[in-house]
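agent: user wants the full assembly modeled, not chains individually. Plan: 1) parse entity lines 2) check alphabet per entity 3) run joint structure prediction 4) return tokens. Steps 1-2 passed, four entities, 672 residues total. Proceeding.
--- entities ---
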Amino acid sequence: MKQRGNTDRKPAATIYDIARHLGLSPSTVSRALNKPGRINAKTEQRVREVAAELNYRINPMARALPTGRTNTLGLILTDITNPVYFPLVRGAERITAGAGHTLVLAESQESGTLEAETARRLLPSIDGLVLVASRLDDEQIRELAEVKPLVLVNRAVESLPAVVPDVLPGIRDALDHLASLGHASLAFLSGPSASWMSRLRWETLLDEAPARGMTIVEIGPGAPTLDGGEQGLRRVRASGVTAVVAYNDLMAIGLLRACRAAGVEVPSSLSIVGFDDIFGSDFTSPPITTIRTPLDLAGEEAVHQVFAALGDDDVPAPRRVSAQFVERASTAAPAR
Amino acid sequence: MKQRGNTDRKPAATIYDIARHLGLSPSTVSRALNKPGRINAKTEQRVREVAAELNYRINPMARALPTGRTNTLGLILTDITNPVYFPLVRGAERITAGAGHTLVLAESQESGTLEAETARRLLPSIDGLVLVASRLDDEQIRELAEVKPLVLVNRAVESLPAVVPDVLPGIRDALDHLASLGHASLAFLSGPSASWMSRLRWETLLDEAPARGMTIVEIGPGAPTLDGGEQGLRRVRASGVTAVVAYNDLMAIGLLRACRAAGVEVPSSLSIVGFDDIFGSDFTSPPITTIRTPLDLAGEEAVHQVFAALGDDDVPAPRRVSAQFVERASTAAPAR
DNA sequence: GTCCTGTTGGCAATCGGTTGCCGACCTCCG
DNA sequence: CGGAGGTCGGCAACCGATTGCCAACAGGAC
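--- prediction returned ---
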């Protein structure tokens, strides 16, 4: 029953095998391997040798049972294939693997229900959880946080650790840039209504644009995808604005494509600014002007904070991550 | 010792808690939950109710210990952030999650050593492994396959299950296309020397191009990245060819960028064909003509095959995946 | 009433580690 | 030489499930 399929697998070596080889007890082997110094140095050496010889690998499940530590972290995001998250995933993976832990990825497909279910499924087998752009409400997130350490990314909930890039610097520079080009009326092409980050960006724009003498309207909500961006063009044109800030680069690129298909010149007839600086946003034509969010750092930082909550030492001091304006070619002075 | 960090966590409910609530033994609870019909229907019902009430979640580790099944699959690829793999990861995730299993992702960063180490680290906690574009040698792969069921993607090893898209149809159509445009001398911008898929593509081109009366040279090896593509331009120009087939779209895009920077017109002075049809390859300018590899299907298929090797029933019959030529705008008749 | 069979549930071993506690032995010191 | 203290290693309980085996009991056939 232990092996299925057609091929017979060889069972992995256990500490019992090592113990038998050396005439020791399993507890001694366990200590030799995990508590350096607790055991006579020569014995410890012999244990290590036999372990290597037998190609011994500790069984993480067996260890997890008594210790409660699985050495595994969970990362849940809305959409694994969204290019926005590639750097984040890589950053998180780097730190996790660097600490000898394993990262489990899962996606919620933009659904709060699915997200909750996934989280509950993962929870028993992980030490901590990173929730990116969670679609859950505050209450649900709090409940999860009661079970295991939890760190949010692109979302804030009172009194819970979160990594939220500071959007203000990037937005300020972007608006200064648009203002200096002579734009007076803007639109924000917003993302999903459940997106906390979309609201944050909108609220910030709502503060900052009028302060520069520009009008701004919200168009949306829309799906945070190429398609969502394309859908937006009709309302953008109807609104009469000369520049659009899209919730993210995917929507910006979608909008750009729709413009091309509709014969709207970018940037001469319409300026477009995206968010995040995803892979590919610099090889559209024109390349997208965007507000870069360093999500690779956010991913690293989130994992560091989980480790910190787990009580690990040598976790570096929290690092601020903030958005940065990147001027490319999708913005220009409006035609009069 | 069980809880760390500042917040106290509430311990998860176990089958012992349920048993105590009902005055039953844990074994009965276990059976009620997993062997429908083995237990009196009313008892089973009561167990389910209390389980729901206590918000019971099975502890996967505890289950894995006696059964040897972890309900987890591993997926190792060379580079998590390579857009080529996004669809593959999503496909694999879909099937895995659909079967109620968990997928663990890891990357080898193009290093065979790291790949071997990662595989060994993962192995004890997974039921099966998918290796994408493995940099390991055949012998190492065989050893891993002896421990747990293993399925390869974009790589073949005698007698091991593998999902390898059939490149021939795509390459044939691409070469017919180039030949009909009047190209007579081609280059293949090859990927890493450890890449089995790069060699397969090259070998196929080497068969098919001369058969159409075209010459072909290999330029490389190079890194399978934007950068690798950019590096290639110097040798491409020196070779005097009129068209280049790049190992993948990333390199094709890199080459395209280098062309633009160097003032080489694409497609009029140089035609470029990529591979894989990654996200972004249709919004370069010009959009990249490419040979699409349906890696989403490959991901699904690989996971299906792991399940099959695990002895699961209702695994669909293997599906052939094959590459397909996609004509866009980076190819045209050569200037004479 | 006896025997057989089927249903239902419990006992206890097991998976592979971890760890508190104890005891044997050695060393060192007064 | 006796005792204190330290080092080293083993015993056994425990983590949370699963499962083979058995016992108790019910119902049906004869």
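agent: reporting back. The domain at 6-58 of chain B is CATH 1.10.260.40 (434 Repressor (Amino-terminal Domain)). Residues 14-16, 26-27, 30-31, 34, 58-67 of chain B lie near DNA strand D (CB under 10 Å from a C1').
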